[in-house]
Each structure stands twice: as C-alpha cells, then as structure tokens.
Write a structure and sequence with these properties.
Layout: E1 2-4, H1 5-8, E2 12-15, E3 21-31, E4 36-43, E5 52-55, E6 61-63, E7 66-69, E8 75-77, H2 82-90, E9 98-101, E10 106-116, E11 121-128, E12 139-143, E13 147-150, E14 154-157
Parallel strand pairs: 2-7, 9-14
Antiparallel strand pairs: 1-10, 2-3, 3-4, 4-5, 5-8, 6-7, 9-10, 10-11, 11-12, 13-14
C-alpha cells in the first residue's frame, strides 16, 4: 500500500502489551543510498527521553490505527544503533530538498513523498514547481527509477522524456497525427 508521508505524520504508536497509545510519529530517518525509511522519531508524554526512535524493524505491523509495537522497550536512543546514528549525523531529509534534471535545471522542491508501507521504500517524490514554471504544471511526480543521483545540494533526476518529431501536412488545412507513424504516401495504380 502506498501512502503519502504527510499522512503518516502524527501517526500513533500503539502498545500490544497495554493497548494504549505510547507515542506519535514525527520525522523519518531515511537512508539516502536506498531511499528507505529506517526509523521514525517519536514523541509523547509517556516517553522518558525526547530523542527516542522507532526502528521499522521493531514495529510488529502498520495498520489503520497506526504502528503496533510490543511495548515501550521497542523504542531506542539514537546512539543504540550505529547505522541510525550515522544517518542522523548526515541530517538527510527529503522535505524541501531541491530537485534538478541532469542538465542542472531546477525542477522545484520536494513537498511530499510516497512510501510503500510494506517495505518502507520511497516510491515517488512530489515536487512543487518554481513560480514561472508552475503556470503549466504546479506539481511533478517523480518515480524513484528516474533518480540518478542524490547529493548534498539536490536530487538529480533523468529528463529523458521523448519529444515527438514535428511533421508537416502536405495538404493545407490538414494535420498529421503525431501518435500514428505512416510511411510515405504512394499513389494507387
């Protein structure tokens, strides 16, 4: 199932042991090499530390009521897992990150992204276009297969949209369907 990351914000984390809400999800910790959500920061009045994380691997399941965990023991500190600590030091986020094409032309900034909740991989980026380019398209959807590079400044995507060749009609007032390719016209014998 695909969900927008904005819909996952403030999702409750429920305890299987007590049946109560333990916390709410805040920010995602994303691995920039794979674009997979590794963990979520959590906050809540029942938590002892304000810097706790919920690893995706520690959640039993994700359902319509939220993330379900065994107990509050499934929350970790940032220094408990080396990989998560390294990712947090990178400070990588997708929110408001610049998106450019391979020719370094600015396409816009990320306003949201779609996550596959079965694997927690980012599948699509929703990009808000700059003001002058937003007259035609206000937003772009970019699939993960179009991403070429992720660097400190931006996400570089492929711009290999094929532009159809323009052909002219031989008869004035007629048109050529660009979706239908024809060979040269021959006269009947």
């Amino acid at each position: 199932m695909l969900l927008l990351s904005s819909r996952l914000a403030n999702t409750p984390v429920m305890s299987l042991q007590t049946g109560a809400e333990l916390a709410k999800i805040t920010n995602a910790v994303i691995d920039p090499g794979t674009l997979q959500v590794i963990a979520y920061r959590v906050h809540g009045p029942l938590l002892g530390s304000p810097n706790l994380l919920l690893r995706i691997e520690d959640a039993r399941e994700f359902s319509d009521i939220g993330f379900i965990v065994d107990s509050h023991d499934d929350f970790i500190e940032s220094h408990d897992v080396i990989k998560i600590e390294e990712l947090l030091r990178l400070g990588f986020t997708l929110d408001h990150r610049l998106v450019t094409d391979e020719n370094r032309r600015k396409l816009g900034k990320i306003i949201d992204y779609t996550i596959d909740v079965d694997s927690f991989y980012v599948q699509q980026l929703t990009v808000k276009r700059p003001l002058l380019k937003s007259f035609n398209d206000t937003e772009l959807l970019i699939h993960r297969s179009q991403i070429i590079e992720i660097n400190n400044e931006s996400i570089v995507v492929s711009s290999q949209a094929e532009v159809p060749e323009h052909t002219t009609a031989t008869t004035p007032g007629s048109y050529v369907n660009p979706f239908r390719k024809r060979g040269p016209l021959t006269e009947p014998e």
